[in-house]
Description:
Blueprint: E1 2-8, E2 13-20, E3 23-27, H1 34-42, E4 46-51, H2 63-70, E5 73-76, E6 87-88, E7 94-97, E8 100-106, E9 115-120, E10 126-132, H3 153-168, E11 176-179, E12 197-198, H4 199-205, H5 215-223, H6 233-242, H7 247-254, E13 257-258, H8 260-269, E14 273-276, H9 280-285, E15 292-293, H10 300-307, E16 315-318, H11 324-332, E17 339-343, H12 346-352, E18 361-363, H13 365-373, E19 377-380, H14 384-389, E20 391-392, E21 396-397, E22 416-419, H15 424-435, E23 441-444, H16 447-451, E24 458-459
Parallel strand pairs: 3-4, 4-5, 5-6, 10-11, 13-17, 14-15, 14-16, 16-17, 18-23, 19-21, 19-22, 22-23
Antiparallel strand pairs: 1-2, 2-3, 7-8, 8-9, 9-10, 11-12, 20-24
Helix pairs in contact: 3-5, 7-11
Amino acid sequence: MKIEQIYTNCLSQGTYYIESNGEVAIIDPLREVQPYIDKAKESGATIKYIFETHFHADFVSGHITLAEKTGATIVYGPTAETNFTSHIAKDLEVFKLGDIEIIALHTPGHTLESTTYLVKDESGKNHAVFSGDTLFIGDVGRPDLAQKGDITQDDLAGLLFDSLRTKLMTLEDEVIVYPAHGAGSACGKHLSKETVSTIGNQKQTNYALRADMTKEEFIKEVTTGLLPPPEYFPLNVKLNKEGYKSIDDIIAKGSKSLSVDEFEYVANKYEALILDVRHQADFIQGFVPQSIFIGLNGSFAPWVGALIRDTEQSIVLIAPEGKEEETITRLARVGFDNVLGYLEGSFESWKTANKEFDTLSSVSANHLEKAISEQATVFDVRKPGEYEANHIKNVDNTPLDYLNDYISVFPKTKDFYIHCAGGYRSVIAASILKSRGFHNVIDVAGGYKAIKDTTIERVASACASK
Length: 466
């Protein structure tokens, strides 16, 4: 038996490749499926099953394309309904894969169809559980995403409590836990940076698996402090349930090289969003007016999903040369399929054509220190938890995730400064603000990491110490 975790840092997502005696199962595949096909081919194996732990909200899965290309059976848990051919497993149903067995454990709570998959090794011993978004390392799945009708988040949290205690915590301590996500995912609150653990370790360290915890305590703890989910989540669920376009077609359509004149024409004709994915240091020095920065070097796809509200939005790209197809692929992972092309020669061709371009004001933390002494206005665009742990005194938190909701608080005439933790998110925020007419925004290079090396007064929120 061979088990491989294929982890995608940008999405904080784990796909799993399981092989036994010439047969392969893929759990929660990404939308681009060729790597799984190639891996199986190299081993002389056949992909037999595609197991989905639930209808994913944070990315578009590759289950449909992979099934079309390999003939493998798509498996969902009980209560799932799809618009494509799939096998809806019964609770405790057994699937043979080579010399091993995979058992579907219905574990509703994160969603109603959520199912984990228990692998028994060649000797019939429980070996590993693929826990999807039911159980993370250090956390459990948020129970608010699948509310509908009379089903509330408290109802789902109660189901999750039962699922964990009757299906997962009863497994042997040495059973390996392979979750669908790690730190950085919006599918939980306190996910660990670790991506593998054991049942025994989680029973000792995971707050949600405390042996003395009542259901009422569990419901309160897992529902307290939940931030609103990104707006693209329901759209991704819809695609995963109903189907989607071939990623090969999407890449072919988007991989169109556009001259400067063609780029301008397409952007104007289709009212396309100009998305600049270069490094933030390059963007600051010069960019096409009205373009939005979301750099490939950060958590690119989740930020696109959080900040671009319409997955049908037409997009034209300014990408580092050679990174165009990667950008289109990463956009497609979260359902943004309408890329119309990219600027040939990247931003340099725009400058060479003597086209007007914009720049972003950026200053050092030492400059900010002097500005604060002169009553400068500053905004912190980090996440609420980061802000509460420590922040500049008398500075408001306007999290990047919800920047669209804070537009009215930024001054329109006097200069103001924004910072994040290291400089990536603040440039995203500044680009959005510039596109909305806030040309008085100033980025703080190096973010809070650099600010900590100054004498700027900092405080922790009262709730952070409780």
